[in-house]
Write a structure and sequence with these properties.
This protein has 1161 residues and is mostly helical. Among the domains are: 13-169, no CATH class; 340-474, Serine Threonine Protein Phosphatase 5, Tetratricopeptide repeat (Alpha Horseshoe); 990-1160, Leucine-rich Repeat Variant. Helix content is 65%, strand content 2%. It has 59 helices and six strands. The strands form three sheets. Strands 1-2 form a two-stranded antiparallel sheet. Strands 3-4 form a two-stranded antiparallel sheet. Strands 5-6 form a two-stranded antiparallel sheet. Strand 1 and strand 2 form a beta hairpin. Helix 1 runs antiparallel to helix 2 (41-60). The radius of gyration is 41 Å and the shape is flat. 45% of the residues are buried. Residues 874-1071 form the Tubulin-folding cofactor D C-terminal domain. InterPro entries: ARM-like, ARM-type_fold, ARM_TBCD_2nd, HEAT_type_2, TBCD, TBCD_C. Keywords: Chaperone. This is ARM repeat-containing protein. One of its GO terms (molecular function) is beta-tubulin binding.
C-alpha cells in the first residue's frame, strides 16, 4: 500500500518496510565480501551495483526512517559484529592491506545506517565490552596505512563513533595500562581524538564526540582544563576554521552534558575561549563558528542557573472549556542570586539575534529563551523587554513598515524567533500580549523591496511561528481579548501573502488556534476554506479562498482593507493584478454596498506619486468598472461606473505616455475599455478629455501588452460610435511604418465591433491582406505583424457573420482564405528559431474558424460555394493536416486539435453538402477518435503511426507527405525517431503497385518524394529533407521490391541522376552528404549497381577531405552490412587503410581507382 503525498512529487509514502527481504539479501552480499583481496573489474562493478541498490533503498525510506525501528536491531547487529571482526584483524596486525573498493563498500554500510537513523540511535547497537576499547584503539593506531587513506573516511568515522561509545565504560582507564606506563591508554585516546579534530569531514564530528565523552569521565576530567587552555590559545592564534570548529563542538558537548561541577569550575575558561574567539575577526566571518560560539556561551550560562521552570506551563487540549485553559504552576517563583556572567552573555545573545545568518539568529533565540526559562520572573520580563525593543531599533521616525531599511530584516527575524521560543516556554505574561501582538501584526506584513526582489519572507514566517506558539502555550483567558484581531490577521496572511510557505504557515497557526482555543469566529468553516492545499496555489488563495472567507462579515472588512492598503500597493505587479481581481470578487458579495466605497478608496491611490500605487489603483478601478457593467443592477450602478472613469483624469497624461510606464499605460487603456460610456465619447460631456490621446499613445507603444489594452479600449469605443474615420486614420498613419505600429494596427483592426457599425470593414480587410502579401512585396517583413493580421481575419469574419453578404463580397472572402492558406507555408527563421510557426499556428486557427463560421451561416448565404469553394476547403484541411504531422510539438498539438474540430463539424445546411465532406472521414475517426482518451498530437509515438496511414487518402496525400518529410529530416530525436520508424513500418506493408482508389503504393511513394525534390531541385531547403527521407527508406530496404515495376525502376534511375548530376559542383555540405548516402544506398539494388559504382569516384575523390572520409566510412558500413553480390574484402581493406583526408591527391586518386575497379569487376 502506498500513497502520493503531493501531486507532482517523487516522494512515496510507505506504510511498512516493504523491501526488508531484498535489503537483507543485499546486506548479506556486502558482509560476505573479502575486503583483504582485490576484486576483478567485473566483480568490482557488480559489487558497486549492490552498494548502489542498498543505498537506493535507504534513500527511498529516508523521510520515514521510523518504519525500520522494529527491525533495526536485527538489521544493524550483523553489520557491527562484522565491523568488529575486521577491526580486530587490523588491530592485531594480521593484515596490512585491504581492497580500497571493498573496504569503501563495507564501511559505507554502517555509515548509511548512521546517516539514515542518526548516530545516537545506531551506536546503541555497537558492541561495548571491556576488550572493545583496546580493539578500537589498536585498530586506529596500528592500521594507519589503511585508516588514514582518503577512501577510508567512512571506516574512520564509524571507528571513532565506536571508540566514543566504548570510551564510556565505567572502569578506570588505568586498568588497561601495563605496569610502569600508567595513563598511556588515556593519552592514546586523547591523541586519537585531537588528531582528527582539524579534519574537514565527518571524522571531525566523531572525534569531537569522542573527546567530549573522554573529558566527561571522572578519571580523565582533570585533563579538561588543559584542553580548555589549549583551545583558548588555538582560537586566538589560528586562522584555519576547521580545528576551531572541532574544538568548539567539544566544548559545546561538555557544556551541555558535563557535570555541573565541571562546568561551574571551568566557566571562566569557557567564557574566555568565547571572548578570545570574538577577537579573531578572520574566524568570526565563518557562520558555523559564530553559531557554535553562541551555543557555547548560552549552554554555559544555562548550567550556572538552577534547573527550574519559572512560569506557568500550559496543558495542551483539543478545545478549551469555559473558565480557562487549565494551566498549572510547576515551580515556585523562588528568588536566588543571578550569576554576574548572565548580563554579558545576554548582551552577546541579543547582538547575535541581529546576525546576518539565520542559523546564528536561531541559536541565539533558543539560548535567550532557555536562559529566561530559568531566571526569576522579574529578570525574565526584563529579557522580554529587551527582545521587544529590537523591533523598535529601526522603526523610529518611519511612516510605515515599508520605509524600514533592509538591514532591519535580520533584527526583526531574530526578535520574532526569540519571541517564538519564549512563547513556547510560556514566558509571555498576559499583560504583555497586547504589545507583542501589535509588533506581530507589523511583522506579518514585513515585505520590503530590494532590487528586483523582496526581503522579509523569513520575518513573516517567524511571526507565524510566534502565533502558532501562542496557541499552544498561552492561556485562553489571556488570548480572548485579542482573538478577533488574531483571527483576522492570520486569515489575511493565509489568503494574501506572496509566498506559499507563509500562507501555509499562517494557515497552520490559524488551525492551531481553532483546535486549541475555540476563540476564532467560524473557525472550522474558515479553516476548511483556507487549509494547506487551498492556500498552496496563489490564484486559488486570492480568487477562491478569500471570497469564500469574506462570506463571513467578521473577516470581510479586514480582507478588503488589506487589499486596498497593501496588495494593490505591492512592489510585484503580479500581486497587484491578482489583488485587484480578488477585491472585485469579494465586493461582488454585496456589490451595491461594498463596491462604491471600495472604488472610492481605490481612486485615492491615483493621487499618490508612487507608480506602483497608481498602477494598483487603475487595476482595481478596471475590475470595479467591469463588475458594475456586468451586474444585474448595472442601471443603478451606472453613475458609479462613470465616477470610476472620471478618476482617470487624476492621472497625468505625461505619466501614462512615459516610455517607462508601460504598466500604467496598459492599465489606463483597460480602464477605458471597461469604463467608457456613450456620454464620454461626446466631447461636450467627456469628463476625461485626454482619453483619446491615451488610446492613441497606447496603440503606438512598443509593448505588446499596451497595444492589446489599447486595442480593447478602441474596441469598446467601437461598440458605442462609428469609428470609420479612426480606422482610416490608423491605416493611413500606421501602414508601412515601424514594426510595433504595424503590429498594433493588425491587432486593432480585428477587435473592432463591425456588427454594430461598419467602421470601414472593407478597408480594414484590404489593409490586412496587404500586410500579409508576400508575393507582391508589399507585405510586412515583421513576423509578429503578420501573425496579428492572421489573428484578426477570422475575428472580422465572425464579427460580421450576421450580415456577411452585405459587408464582404465572396471574392474578398476568398482572398482572405488564400492568404491564410499561403500563411501555412511561412517558415521564417531568425535568431529566435522558427518564428514562422507563430504565423502557421494563427493560420491553422484562422482557417478552422473560417470553416466554422461559414458552415454555421451556410443556410443564410446565397451560395456557400462562392464564399468557401470546396477545393479551398479541402486545401485548408490538407494544410492543417500537414501542420499536424510536422516537426514542432506545439504546432502539431494545435493543428491536431483544430483538425479534430473540423472532423466533428456538422455538414453545412445546404441542399448538397457532399462537396464539403472530408475525404476518408470514417478512416480518420477510426484512427484518431477510437480511443476514449487521446494521448495528444504532440506525442510523436502516438501520432505518427496513425498519420502515415493518411497517405492512403489521395486528396490530402501531398500535404501529409510533405509534413512527414519535414519531420523525418528534423534533428529532434523525439520526433525523428517515431516518424521514421512509423514510415518504414508502413511502407514495408504497402504493395509495389495498387489500382484501387485511396490505396497508396510503393511506386507512388517514390514518385511523389522524387517529385517534391525535382520541382525545386536548386533549393536545398526542399531537396535535403526529401533525400534524408529517401535515405531512411533505402537503409531499411523499403525500395528493394520497386525495380519489379518498370516505372518504379525509372523513378530510382531518376533519383540516381538527381544525386550524381553536377555533384562535384555542390557547395552545401548537408546536400553533399545526403546525396552521397543515397548513391551508396542504391548500390545493393542489382538493377542500378553498374550505374552507381562509377559515380562513387565523384564522392570518394571529392575536393573536400571531409566528404572523402565520410564517403569511405559510409561505403564500408553498407558493404559490410548488406548483401551486394560483390566481392568486397579487398575494397573494404582499401577503405580502411587509406588516409582519405590526406592532402596527397595522387594517393587518393589511386585508391579511388582501385575501389571502383574492384567493385566493377
Amino acid at each position: 500500500m502506498d500513497t502520493t503525498v503531493d501531486p507532482g512529487s517523487d516522494f512515496r509514502a510507505y506504510a511498512r518496510f516493504e523491501n526488508k527481504d531484498e535489503f537483507i539479501a543485499l546486506r548479506d552480499q556486502i558482509l560476505a565480501l573479502d575486503i583483504y583481496t582485490e576484486p576483478s573489474q567485473e566483480q568490482g562493478s557488480a559489487e558497486w551495483n549492490v552498494y548502489k541498490k542498498i543505498n537506493l533503498i535507504f534513500d527511498s525510506y529516508q523521510e520515514q526512517s521510523y518504519l525500520w525501528d522494529p527491525y533495526l536491531e536485527s538489521l544493524v547487529r550483523p553489520v557491527v559484529e562484522k565491523f568488529k571482526a575486521h577491526a580486530k584483524r587490523f588491530a592485531s596486525g594480521e593484515v596490512k592491506t585491504a581492497s580500497f573498493l571493498r573496504l569503501q563498500i563495507f564501511s559505507g554500510l554502517p555509515y548509511l545506517f548512521v546517516k539514515f537513523r542518526g548516530y545516537k540511535t545506531i551506536t546503541k547497537f555497537f558492541p561495548h565490552e571491556i576488550a572493545d576499547l583496546t580493539i578500537a584503539l589498536d585498530c586506529m593506531t596500528n592500521a594507519e596505512d589503511i585508516v588514514d587513506q582518503n577512501y577510508s573516511w567512512s571506516f574512520r568515522y564509524i571507528l571513532l563513533l565506536w571508540l566514543s561509545l566504548v570510551c564510556m565504560i565505567p572502569f578506570d582507564l588505568e586498568q588497561f595500562d601495563e605496569a610502569g606506563s600508567e595513563g598511556k591508554t588515556a593519552v592514546r585516546v586523547e591523541a586519537v581524538g585531537k588528531s582528527f579534530l582539524a579534519k574537514a569531514g565527518l571524522d571531525r564530528e566523531a572525534a569531537a564526540l569522542l573527546l567530549s565523552k573522554f573529558y566527561m569521565r571522572k578519571d580523565t576530567a582533570s585533563k579538561f582544563p588543559d584542553f580548555l587552555s589549549w583551545s583558548i590559545e588555538t582560537v586566538g592564534s589560528v586562522v584555519d576554521p576547521f580545528p576551531v570548529i572541532g574544538l568548539l563542538r567539544v566544548l559545546c558537548e561538555v557544556a551541555k552534558l558535563g557535570s555541573t561541577d565541571q562546568v561551574q569550575t571551568c566557566k571562566e575558561k569557557f567564557l574566555q575561549a568565547a571572548s578570545t574567539l570574538q577577537g579573531n575577526t578572520s574566524l568570526m566571518g565563518n557562520t558555523l563558528i559564530r553559531q557554535l560560539r553562541i551555543k557555547l556561551i548560552a549552554r554555559v550560562v544555562i548550567r550556572l542557573l538552577p534547573a527550574r521552570t519559572r512560569r506557568l506551563r500550559a496543558k495542551g487540549r483539543a478545545l478549551a472549556m469555559e473558565g480557562g485553559f487549565g494551566a498549572e504552576a510547576v515551580a515556585n517563583d523562588d528568588y536566588f542570586d543571578v550569576p554576574e556572567e548572565i548580563e554579558s552573555v545576554l548582551e552577546d545573545l541579543f547582538k547575535a539575534l541581529r546576525d546576518k545568518d539565520t542559523v546564528v539568529r536561531y541559536s541565539a533565540a533558543k539560548g535567550v529563551a532557555r536562559i529566561s526559562e530559568r531566571l526569576p520572573t522579574d529578570f525574565a520580563e526584563q529579557v522580554l523587554d529587551q527582545v521587544l525593543h529590537l523591533f523598535s531599533l529601526h522603526s523610529a521616525g518611519i511612516a510605515s513598515i515599508y520605509d524600514l531599511p533592509s538591514i532591519a530584516e535580520a533584527t526583526w527575524h531574530g526578535a520574532c524567533l526569540a519571541c517564538a521560543e519564549m512563547t513556547r516556554r510560556a514566558l509571555i505574561p498576559d499583560e504583555r500580549l497586547s504589545e507583542l501582538v501589535q509588533w506581530l501584526y507589523k511583522a506579518l506584513l514585513f515585505d520590503i523591496r530590494k532590487g528586483a526582489h523582496s526581503i522579509g519572507s523569513n520575518v513573516r514566517d517567524a511571526a507565524s511561528y510566534v502565533l502558532w506558539s501562542l496557541a499552544r502555550a498561552q492561556g485562553v483567558d489571556g488570548l480572548r481579548p485579542h482573538a478577533l484581531e488574531l483571527a483576522r490577521i492570520l486569515v489575511t496572511v493565509s489568503c494574501f501573502d506572496r509566498e506559499i510557505p507563509i500562507r501555509r504557515a499562517a494557515s497552520a497557526a490559524y488551525q492551531e488556534f481553532v483546535g486549541r482555543t475555540n476563540l476564532f469566529p467560524h473557525g472550522i468553516d474558515v479553516l476548511r476554506k483556507t487549509d494547506f492545499y487551498a492556500v498552496g496555489v496563489r490564484r486559488n488563495a486570492f480568487t477562491v479562498a478569500a471570497p469564500e472567507v469574506a462570506e463571513h462579515e467578521e473577516y470581510r472588512g479586514c480582507l478588503i482593507d488589506h487589499l486596498l492598503n497593501v496588495t494593490l500597493r505591492h512592489w510585484d505587479p503580479a500581486m497587484r493584478e491578482i489583488g485587484a481581481q480578488s477585491l472585485r470578487y469579494i465586493c461582488e458579495l454585496d456589490l451595491a454596498a461594498l463596491g462604491p466605497e471600495a472604488a472610492k478608496r481605490a481612486s485615492q491611490l491615483l493621487t499618490i506619486p508612487d507608480d506602483a500605487d497608481v498602477h494598483g489603483g487603475l487595476l482595481a478601478l478596471t475590475e470595479f468598472a467591469l463588475a458594475f457593467r456586468n451586474s444585474p443592477q448595472h442601471e443603478q450602478l451606472e453613475p458609479e461606473r462613470r465616477k470610476i472613469f472620471t478618476a482617470l483624469s487624476t492621472v497625468p497624461l505625461t505619466t501614462i505616455q512615459s516610455s517607462r510606464q508601460e504598466l500604467i499605460a496598459a492599465a489606463a487603456c483597460n480602464l477605458i475599455a471597461s469604463g467608457i460610456s456613450f456620454a464620454e465619447t461626446q466631447h461636450a460631456q467627456a469628463t476625461v478629455p485626454h482619453w483619446r490621446q491615451v488610446v492613441d499613445s497606447g496603440l503606438k507603444n512598443k509593448s505588446a501588452a499596451v497595444q492589446e489594452a489599447a486595442a480593447s479600449a478602441l474596441a469598446a469605443v467601437s461598440r458605442l460610435v462609428d469609428c470609420s474615420a479612426v480606422v482610416n486614420r490608423l491605416i493611413r498613419e500606421f501602414e508601412g511604418k515601424i514594426p510595433p505600429m504595424l503590429q498594433s494596427l493588425a491587432r486593432v483592426l480585428g477587435v473592432l465591433d463591425y456588427a454594430t457599425f461598419p467602421h470601414g470593414v472593407q478597408d480594414a480587410v484590404r489593409c490586412l491582406l496587404r500586410m500579409v502579401d508576400r508575393k507582391s512585396g508589399s507585405g510586412s517583413t515583421n513576423v509578429e505583424a503578420r501573425r496579428n493580421a492572421f489573428d484578426s481575419m477570422p475575428l472580422i469574419l465572425n464579427n460580421i457573420s450576421g450580415k456577411l453578404e452585405e459587408e464582404l463580397s465572396p471574392e474578398l472572402v476568398n482572398e482572405l482564405e488564400d492568404a491564410l492558406l499561403d500563411g501555412l507555408t511561412d517558415y521564417t527563421s531568425d535568431e529566435r528559431g522558427d518564428v514562422g510557426s507563430w504565423v502557421r499556428i494563427s493560420c491553422v486557427k484562422g482557417l478552422t474558424s473560417f470553416v466554422q463560421t461559414l458552415f454555421s451561416r451556410a443556410g443564410s448565404l446565397p451560395d456557400l460555394a462562392s464564399y468557401l469553394p470546396p477545393e479551398k476547403y479541402h486545401d485548408a484541411v490538407g494544410g492543417i493536416l500537414k501542420q499536424a504531422v510536422e516537426r514542432l510539438d506545439n504546432v502539431r498539438q494545435i493543428a491536431g486539435e483544430n483538425f479534430l474540430t473540423l472532423l466533428l463539424l456538422p455538414p453545412p445546411a445546404v441542399p448538397n453538402p457532399a462537396p464539403w465532406k472530408l475525404r476518408g472521414d470514417v478512416r480518420m475517426k477510426e484512427l484518431f477518435l477510437s480511443e476514449q482518451e487521446s494521448v495528444g498530437w504532440n506525442v510523436g509515438s502516438w501520432v505518427f503511426p496513425r498519420a502515415v496511414q493518411l497517405l492512403d487518402i489521395e486528396r490530402y496525400r501531398d500535404q501529409v507527405l510533405a509534413g512527414i518529410v519535414l519531420s523525418a529530416s528534423t534533428k529532434t530525436d523525439s520526433t525523428q525517431r517515431p516518424v521514421t520508424s512509423a514510415l518504414v513500418a508502413w511502407a514495408l506493408q504497402i504493395p509495389v503497385t495498387a489500382s484501387e482508389p485511396d490505396r497508396y503504393d510503393l511506386r507512388g511513394l517514390a514518385q511523389d518524394l522524387l517529385g517534391q525534390a525535382l520541382t525545386k531541385a536548386s533549393s536545398n531547403n526542399v531537396v535535403v529533407p526529401v533525400l534524408q527521407t529517401l535515405n531512411v527508406l533505402l537503409e531499411a530496404d523499403v525500395f528493394e521490391r520497386l525495380p519489379q515495376d518498370p516505372r518504379g525502376l525509372t523513378t530510382l534511375r531518376s533519383l540516381l541522376s538527381l544525386v550524381t548530376k553536377n555533384a562535384s559542383k555542390l557547395k552545401n555540405p548537408q546536400r553533399i552528404n545526403v546525396s552521397m548516402r543515397c548513391l551508396i544506398n542504391l548500390i545493393p539494388i542489382p538493377e542500378l549497381q553498374k550505374d552507381c559504382i562509377p559515380q562513387l569516384s565523384t564522392y570518394l575523390g571529392h575536393q573536400y577531405p571531409r566528404v572523402r572520409a565520410d564517403t569511405a566510412e559510409y561505403l564500408y558500413t553498407v558493404l559490410s552490412s548488406k548483401e551486394t553480390g560483390i566481392q568486397t574484402d579487398e575494397v573494404e581493406e582499401i577503405l580502411l587503410e587509406t588516409e582519405w583526408s590526406s592532402a596527397n591527391s595522387t594517393m587518393v586518386e589511386e585508391a579511388v581507382g582501385r575501389c571502383v575497379g574492384l567493385m566493377s569487376a
